[in-house]
Amino acid sequence: MTRNLSKWFGILALLSLPYMIKAQETGGKGVAQPHISHYFHLAFNTGAATPLSFPGNIRKVQHYSSLFSPVVGYEANLPLKGRWQVYAGLGLSWKGMEVTDSVAYLHTLIKVDSAEIEGDFTGNNKTTCRNIYLNLPLGIAYTAGDNWRLRAGLYLGFLLRPSFSGTVSDGYLRRGNSLGEKITIDEASFNFDDEQRKFDFGIDLAVAKKVYKKFSLSGNLQWGLQPLFPSGFKGVAFNMYNIFFALGVQYRL
Amino acid sequence: MKSRWYAIVLLLSLSLGCIKNAPLNPEADIEQFSIDESLLTGNTVIDQTNRKIKLYLTREAYAKGVAPVISVSPGATLYPPSGTLIKPGEGKQQYTVTAENGSNNKTYTVEVSSAGLWTFNFEQWKQNPSDKYEYPVENDSLTLWSSGNAGVALSGVPKQSDAYPTRATNDGYLGTKAAELVTIPGTALSAFIHVYLYAGSMFVGNFNTGVVLSDPLAATEFGQPYVGLPLRFTGYYKYAPGTVFQDENQNPVAGKTDQCAIYAVLFQGPERLNGKNINNSEKIIATAKLTDGTARANFTRFDIPFIYKPGWDSSTANLMLAIVASSSSEGDLYRGAIGSKLIVDSLNIVAQ
What we know:
The structure holds 2 protein chains of 2 kinds.
Chain A: H1 2-27, E1 37-50, E2 58-65, E3 70-81, E4 84-112, E5 115-144, E6 148-161, E7 164-175, E8 182-191, E9 199-212, E10 215-224, E11 241-252
Antiparallel strand pairs in A: 1-3, 1-11, 2-4, 3-4, 4-5, 5-6, 5-7, 6-9, 7-8, 9-10, 10-11
Chain B: H1 2-15, E1 30-34, E2 40-47, E3 52-57, H2 59-64, E4 69-72, E5 77-79, E6 94-98, E7 105-112, E8 119-120, E9 125-127, E10 134-136, E11 145-147, H3 149-153, E12 166-169, E13 178-182, E14 184-185, E15 197-198, E16 201-207, H4 216-219, E17 220-222, E18 224-225, E19 230-240, E20 245-246, E21 261-268, E22 273-274, E23 284-289, E24 296-305, E25 307-308, E26 319-326, E27 336-337, E28 341-351
Parallel strand pairs in B: 3-7
Antiparallel strand pairs in B: 1-4, 2-3, 5-6, 6-7, 8-28, 9-10, 11-16, 12-13, 13-28, 14-15, 16-17, 16-26, 17-22, 18-26, 19-24, 19-28, 20-27, 21-23, 21-26, 23-25
């Protein structure tokens, strides 16, 4: 179901771009019609692949960084009526984080090829996630006065380069579940790169304020509505969502 | 400005106020099981894998009973409580631990071990219910032998008996069952901890899965209490080394052929020896070791005398004896040839 949905969203978004450009070309012939505006974005993401509320199994977050997570993109705005426009964009978005935390009785299953081990882990966890998505936002934009522009819609993300790995250390694994035998772990690594879903979607909200000529400062929240890992995946006991806020500049062509 | 506010609100919501109260402890282990050392012939084993308490009691303690001092997981409760007198001679004795969270509990069964006759024909085997590896049991269904199988299980091999390096075979001496030890490749998971090979191994003793990742050589706890003095170690074996010997980093070693290892060690207990000191401990009193571990196509009998250390103290208490067999003599260092196969049968310790 989700896969079909993603396909349709993707096709819709891709199709909408040339139409807008086409619309601009025809619109340019004599008759005074509002022009399509084009924007280029450069921003940096702050955020995390995170559970919506921290489960009790996460005891302490010792360190967090959003890594170097740039966003580059192009956005087209097609005037609708008055101050309203529709927008569609295309770009690349790095969604990264590095988290070190202490966990207790966290259920996990590690599977590599045909070998797997499942159990409850207590100890330290370091997760590094640095996914690159093809990012397609689309929705409705509103211009407030000369300087402000707001937009609200959905984004679609296609995972181009997956990266989700880490280590567990200074703890122990309970084989199977919390009643299993205790196996001391000094350090072991995990890699869930290819376990992740290839498609992400969510809410896209942005605000931009013109600061200098064609330059605006922008803030863009992308709140994922779909867990990073499919429901059958048991490596992480809770659902994680991509929740990222990109702060940057945009240039109006 | 608005954008900054969004950012601040978002970051606050992500980083603060999200840590919840600690969940109640779901664990229900017997962590320590202490009995006065004077009542023991060997140290108590808490077998967490099979939920057994293995006691090695003096005859007197067995008759009178013991009152172990027991500690359990934080917050958990124990029944019968610590300090209660138990008489293992008077029927099955069990302990139930209930976790702090109330919903988890675990039952441990007390097993009083005593090796009577040190003769092992490996005719009876059982299968671990969850991981499906096989292990030999004695006529009275006690388990004196252990293997590395429980450790291999952690590397995620398929749950079937022939996926493990130590198992039963019908190709025994005179057509009976025997123990088959085969050196197998590691798994994609074991490669994470740089283990590329598992030698087939079995030994009289216990396997402590708790330390198998952090201190693997300490996981093999060799030896069981022994009464008397052993004279000779006899048995039958056949051995076919694998074709390519590899070092611990999976590199082939040209010109080297794998060898098997079969030996018995008498030492001073009640603490067991392990993979780190079985060859060099000060506590070793006598050893009987197969010197030629090369190929044997047919069953070959061995009869090796125990060689006692000069000047050993004949009044030593708590003697323990270990028997160890491996399909790759350097298997403890993860070196050997994949496919090396050792079959052992009819092992016997001849006493004075």
